[in-house]
Fold these 2 entries.
Entry 1:
Amino acid sequence: MAKEECFIIAREGVSGGTGTLSLRLFEYIKQEGGRCVYLCCENNAPQNYALMERVVDEIVCVQDISFTKQFDSIKNKYKSFCFLTYSIAEYVAISTLRNKCDKIKRVIYYVVHDYAFSIPPSLQLNKFRRTIIPVFQRLKYRKLVSTLMVNRSIVFMDDISLMETKKNLRIGNLPSIVQLLPINIPNLLPEDFKVIKRHKPFTIGTMCRMEFPMKGYVLGLIDKICELSNVYDIRLILVGDGPGRVLVEEKLNCLPTNNRGKIEYIRSLPYSEIGNFYSQCDLALGMGTMLLDASINKVLAVPVRSYTNDLVVSALFLDKVEWLLFDKMDEKPFEGILSYLLALEDDEFNLLVERQFLNVRNAYNINDFIRLLQDNSVGANTLNSRELWFFKMLNKII
């Protein structure tokens, strides 16, 4: 990235997986001598916010979803800008700014969820709503997303998010960009995996922002640990905060004493202590960046299904590391995975951990993502004023 160009991420808050993803990108760009700024509307994760302040050149937090106030405060400090956004609303807001400021050279929308433009199949809706909502979604998003694909302004984090988008919006064979999540891979040697020792009790961990129904699997996981801890020597470390925290705490407080003792709940954890969390885990359950963080911290991972209050999982992450979300074609009973892992000898278990790490190392590389940000053809053609006006009108109507 040219030194005179400032890389900006515009996002509503600083929490969750996209918060840690942003930190990862900023750390790398700063190491390479680049400039970066974070624009947000609220500080919804103080620990992430404090870390962000130490990494970026500036962080501007103002309650303005148009990002006008935030951008106005920094636009005269840098020669040009490349923006990254994680939602269609943020992309439209920054594209509107770009039409008023030619210093914004590129705007990229990075799709980080497979249901960005579709209804999760596990979401409880009646037949009428499940039929009519996709019709409205197609009316609202089809032309917009198609334009972004043709313009090379939208990037999908994996094949699942691309396939779900094309399927739900009924988009044909348009050019598309898939770029796996950026991650710094440490240099680990074979002997680093031979010394892994499983904990007693066998420890399962999950870490997420408590947003329901999307992260409803947490509730199902609590139930499953209570059930299986009567059969297996296991415990759970649960980390997370957010709007669903009260529901989780109420559920934990209602558990019998013997079950409650099997679950450790940590409300929040600084980004700098993620490694310590994984050092206490033998198996990690989650989605997105958590699967990658587990892999580079030498912990086996299992993807979970979103938008359900049950624990629904697919096979071990190690054999399909390009899929960062639940694979409905590869659903497995969690107890079957657990019993299989517990029955393994230490050297067999450690070989699985090493295989997962090697597969992640071969598939993911932060340099590939940085090259994408440096590609002047990506994000250069944003929506014009007429296209933005049309979408905003649809957004008010639908």
Entry 2:
Amino acid sequence: MRVKILLATALASVMAIGPAAAMGSGDPFVDQQTGVNYTVYKPSWTAGRELIDTNGLPCGEGNDEGFTANYGLGAGSFLLLQGNPECSDGGDARRVAVRTINGQRAEVWAACDVQPGCWSNPNRATAFFLNGGWLKFTQPKQPNQTPTIVQIAPTRGGITIAQVVRIARNLKPAVELSGR
């Protein structure tokens, strides 16, 4: 009887913390895939930035939780956001470039709310490098999944448009990378 109670308590604890935490693979990208309907992507190239942390991003009742991954510290650091629906707003920005990522249209936005007069700089790539911004695109749906809205956002400048595009082009389904 005591074993049954302990098993029931353990099962209830696992159910209470959610399926992603229960997965326990040791890879937060793979764990996030459990329980969401979009494909979770992991970069295979990060411009030399180390993964600092990952977090779920609440997206309102009835919606899948978004997912964020922070890479690097200081200049050149970036945040990878993904989910469906989109759960974040980048703030004041202007589109500075359009690229193609894996056949999908990707827009590059430079943030300009951090430095007065930054839009007076005629070089939009410089504005992106100095002030940060984000690249945004939608990965096509995978079998039994919804499309994934992806944003790669340099948090303090110091990373180029070309580097952000390369990060985006090197996103792979996390489960595929893990070999599971």
